[in-house]
Design goal:
The radius of gyration is 20 Å and the shape is globular. The protein has helices at about 5-15, 15-20, 60-65, 70-75, 90-95, 105-115, 160-170, 195-200, 215-220, 245-250, 255-275, 275-290, 295-305, 315-325, 340-350, and strands at about 25, 50-55, 80-85, 100-105, 120-130, 135, 150-155, 185-190, 205-210, 225-230, 240-245, 305-310. With about 375 residues, it is α/β, with parallel strands linked by helices. Helix 9 (about 215-220) crosses helix 13 and helix 11 packs across helix 12 (about 275-290). The strands form two sheets. A seven-stranded mixed β-sheet has the order 1-3-2-4-11-5-12, with helices on both faces. Strands 8-7-9-6-10 form a five-stranded mixed β-sheet, sandwiched between helices. It is built from 15 helices and twelve strands.
Length: about 375
């Protein structure tokens, strides 16, 4: 199998240096509010299950599941341990090293992790979220889609999910951009989501193709939503967050994996049935993780643009991989077997929900 080319392959190695300093993301604090039921037993004899996610609203299934104690409830006396991440490569490295067992992550790092390991490192075992990605621009510099040409547009990282989406969209406009340098008819500026709002405010970028809540932070700084990526997809749905697992952990501890997926399905049901409470719960967990909650003028519009779903929307992952190939960031991958939805469909059936499909990319 092939890897992301050039800079992407190099990026996959960078977390080895970064993680030595940060310990594979931020270690979680003990959840004082989470209680283990009396008489609860360990699952598969495990002392803990290590769960990773990003401090993004697009990972709200994990945020809510943690804040509401759903993971701990399903895991019984097996402790739910958590680590938060800022970038996909570092989470994949943590998964590969065994520092986490299960993680919430975007499609591009999942594809890269799977192909880099020749299909041996991970499986996608469920969906989590769709949407929540927008092109936000400075309205004084850009008033229409055609005005994007010649401007500086930020994306979170070379070869990440939004970077691929923007390069693909630019190509569809007939514009040429070198995928590695980001130079061309549009200048692509790879900028961490944490610093993009400051770069936008300072005028060093004219817009950004970014996930929530960064998009709504830009709007709060005077930006305008020029394009919602969901409008480019059939039924306005595309995968933004998946659930992945180490293959060895899946094989050795299927009951633990089932417990986490039960909690995830329960979290999504609660989110969709109680959007106001769920939004507050996600924001509360963000405040614990980052030290700062999102203000209402950022939280409210960001939340509205994300759909929470157990369906991994597998056909859109295949399309996103094709976009990366077209952009010159990925050699055509063999994604057959990247999904194993067996346990998820078992959980969905037990809860009275319809099974989900791997679009031909599942484990046979």
């Amino acid at each position: 199998m092939k890897l992301f080319r050039g800079g992407i392959a190099a990026l996959a190695a960078l977390p080895l240096l970064t993680l030595a300093a940060c310990g594979y993301g931020s270690e979680s604090k003990n959840d004082e509010t989470t209680k283990v039921a009396a008489g609860a037993k360990k699952i598969d004899g495990l002392d803990s299950v290590k769960i990773g996610y990003f401090g993004n609203l697009t990972h709200a299934t994990a945020l809510v599941g943690r804040e509401q104690g759903l993971f701990q409830k399903e895991l019984g006396a097996t402790k739910a341990d958590y680590a938060t991440f800022n970038a996909g490569p570092s989470e994949i490295e943590a998964l590969n090293s065994g520092s986490i067992d299960i993680g919430w992550i975007g499609p591009s790092p999942a594809i890269n992790g799977y192909t880099k390991s020749n299909g041996k490192s991970l499986k996608i075992i469920g969906g989590s979220a769709s949407g929540g990605v927008k092109l936000v621009v400075n309205p004084e510099k850009i008033s229409s889609l055609k005005d994007v040409k010649g401007k500086k547009i930020a994306t979170p990282q070379l070869g990440n999910t939004q970077d691929v989406a923007f390069l693909n969209w630019a190509a569809e406009q007939g514009w040429k951009v070198d995928p590695q340098s980001g130079k061309g008819d549009v200048t692509v500026v790879r900028s961490d989501n944490k610093v993009t709002p400051d770069a936008f405010k300072a005028g060093s970028v004219d817009g950004a193709w970014v996930p929530e809540p960064t998009a709504s932070k830009l709007v709060a700084e005077g930006g305008k939503v020029l394009l919602d990526e969901s409008t480019l997809w059939p039924d306005k749905k595309f995968v933004i967050t998946n659930i992945i697992v180490r293959q060895a952990f899946l094989k050795e501890h299927p009951k633990a994996v089932e417990a986490v997926l039960k909690a995830s399905v329960e979290a999504n049901k609660w989110i969709n049935a109680n959007p106001g409470q769920a939004k507050a719960a996600a924001n509360k967990q963000l405040a614990v993780d980052s030290g700062k909650a999102l203000p209402a003028n950022v939280l409210d519009p960001a939340w509205k643009s994300i759909q929470f779903t157990d369906d991994p929307l597998a056909s859109t992952l295949d399309t996103e991989a094709a976009h990366a190939v077209k952009a010159g960031l990925l050699d055509k991958p063999d994604l057959k077997g990247i999904y194993d939805l067996t346990i998820l469909n078992k959980v969905l059936k037990a809860s009275g929900d319809s099974p989900v499909d791997a679009a031909g990319l599942g484990t046979s």
